[in-house]
Amino acid sequence: MTGPNPYLFVVGAARSGTTLLQRMLDAHPMLAVVNETYWLPRKYRERTGLTRDGLVTPALFPLLLHSPKFERMGLDEDDLRRIAGGAPSRYPEFVARLFDEYARRQGKQLAGDKTPGYVRRVAQLHELWPEARFVHIIRDPRDVCLSLLDWSGGERTVGQFGTWHLDRAVSAALYWRYCVALGREAGETLGTGLYFETRYEHLITATETELGRLCQFLNIPFHSAMQSYHVGRTRAKPGRSSKAQWLPPTCGLRDWRTQIAPDRCASIEVAIGELMHELGYPPGGSRAGPRLLDQVDEVRSKFTASLRADDRPIPRGW
Q: Looking at CB atoms within 10 Å, which of 44, 238, 292, 318 has the fewest?
């Protein structure tokens, strides 16, 4: 089996388990999944280093080499020139060759990418690589909020929507809702042949079953190496993140039931309860009083105003 590459994109709200899933997929002997490119749609949107028609010029090479995440592909300027070839190529074709090369260097046939933020760029990525498959991982939003609030990058990720200073928990919840809703809407357009949803909770509690479903979607045989991605890499150490420790699938790393105060949990559920219900996540049982309801309304209003001011797409029913 061969490409076309990039073969898949792993997407989802930040702190939803995208790294866990990337590591599982990358352990498959046929599939190499690079960890967070971020530059793929950006370079095409900027058109720097491309002609108006989207043809790659040598001016693109130093821009890629100076992109902080590009080094993860392990390619240098000579590689880029060789891959580009003599005749000008369109950006999607050039990137496909980069992923072909990345797969080859990993001793594999297929290559993909894991970048959480691409959950908001699915339509653009599909336009560039119409045969690529998308795997959207979703996690209980209360556990996502816990992780975002405890993460050094939480403010950078959620703060771009302008409400972090008002209420971090509600802002994190609205960020989750925004990402998940946009990803699912794009998935409806793509259909089941190109779009697959998985749950973090299923990967943890029914790992083999869920990976089997995922392999079926990707049209690759299931391989046990996906479950042993951590073997030889686990470095358990108190104080380090589960990601840094390369832990196996582990229940209870976050538990909103015991780690979120009832009033904060109530405000999160007010902000995103409809989508939570649609996805089958049960409510926590706490009720929000008038003050919390007003606070949620204020944050949601300013979050929405930020979306409009930045000309971002707004999901249905927002």
A: 238
Cβ(283)–Cβ(59) below 8 Å: no
Tell me the Cα Rg of the chain: 20
Cα dihedral 142, 145, 147, 151 in deg (nearest 10)? -170
DSSP per-residue letters across 54-104: -BB-TTHHHHHHTSTTGGGG---HHHHHHHH-SS--BHHHHHHHHHHHHHH
pLDDT per position as a tens digit, 251-272:
878 889 899 999 999 999 999 9
The pLDDT confidence band at residue 234, using thresholds 50, 70 and 90, is confident
* Cβ atoms 178, 172 nearer than 8 A: no
Look at residues 173, 157, 132 and name the one whose alpha carbon lies nearest to residue 7.
Answer: 132
**pLDDT attached to residue 243:** 80
Dihedral sign (CA 41, 47, 48, 54) = positive
Return the CATH number of the domain spanning residue range 1-139+191-234.
Answer: 3.40.50.300
